[in-house]
Amino acid sequence: xxxxxxxxxxxxxxxxxxxxxxxxxxxxxxxxxxxxxxxxxxxxxxxxxxxxxxxxxxxxxxxxxxxxxxxxxxxxxxxxxxxxxxxxxxxxxxxxxxxxxxxxxxxxxxxxxxxxxxxxxxxxxxxxxxxxxxxxxxxxxxxxxxxxxxxxxxxxxxxxxxxxxxxxxxxxxxxxxxxxxxxxxxxxxxxxxxxxxxxxxxxxxxxxxxxxxxxxxxxxxxxxxxxxxxxxxxxxxxxxxxxxxxxxxxxxxxxxxxxxxxxxxxxxxxxxxxxxxxxxxxxxxxxxxxxxxxxxxxxxxxxxxxx
Length: 307
Prior knowledge:
The protein has helices at about 5-15, 20-25, 30-45, 60-85, 105-115, 130-135, 200-215, 225-235, 280-305; strands at about 50, 55, 90-95, 120-125, 145, 155-170, 190-195, 220-225, 240-245, 255-260, 265-275. It is α/β, with parallel strands linked by helices. The protein folds into 3 domains: about 5-85, Winged helix-like DNA-binding domain superfamily/Winged helix DNA-binding domain (Arc Repressor Mutant, subunit A); about 90-160 and about 270-305, D-Maltodextrin-Binding Protein, domain 2, CATH 3.40.190.10; about 160-265, D-Maltodextrin-Binding Protein, domain 2 (3-Layer(aba) Sandwich). The strands form 3 sheets. Strands 3, 4, 5, 6, 9, 10 and 11 form a 7-stranded mixed sheet that branches. Helix 1 (about 5-15) packs across helix 4. The N and C termini lie far apart (about 70 Å).
């Protein structure tokens, strides 16, 4: 039995007339009658009762019609799902992220992507940039949102977002009083809370560079593995921190955030994926970011610079 037998049978069952069914199928009537006869022979039952005046479904024919509809719908669904996967519009995506990406940028990406591709199941993994590089080598993640710069011969890496640094101070800190901005040189005697360099080399080096440009090296009093832990330590009065501006989405009444004066550096995040990647779902996600997210964030950055 072939799929065409089902389509021929459905046409005759719906028309209850071989001539009209043949016209609908755009074939001549004798071949259609022959195909239906072959189908009945294969099944070992009569699907139609035929007289000169009319064609009717037998009880076996009525039962076979119901199941034929189900089979056709199942095959059509399977074909459409295969095409959808091939276009990258469904399937699964393992997305890793780190740092301040999770506060503003990641929710923006997920909302926009889900609106356009609701059939893609995204599995999120919070990982440091360094851990992501290892996971890419082991093929454990598909796409990574990382802190730049990162050098890798095996990965494609593109700039995704750029934002200025701010200073996070305990609310009762003397530098937090009656100020709208802060000069980094005024932090020379402060105790800094920082992530380790292993957690994110680009972010760590940016903070060191900012302080060095002001003529001092930061005194590190506490080390945290993730930025939200840095915020918690600042709130507890253990020190101050230089953080990406989007950290302000992490609300805390015990912290004052102040923009840096004459800021010469920025927190840069990027998107990474293996150069050998061939998954339609992954490549479609990269295209989505390039078409929707990256132009938007770049225009925002240009606007900030213009102001």
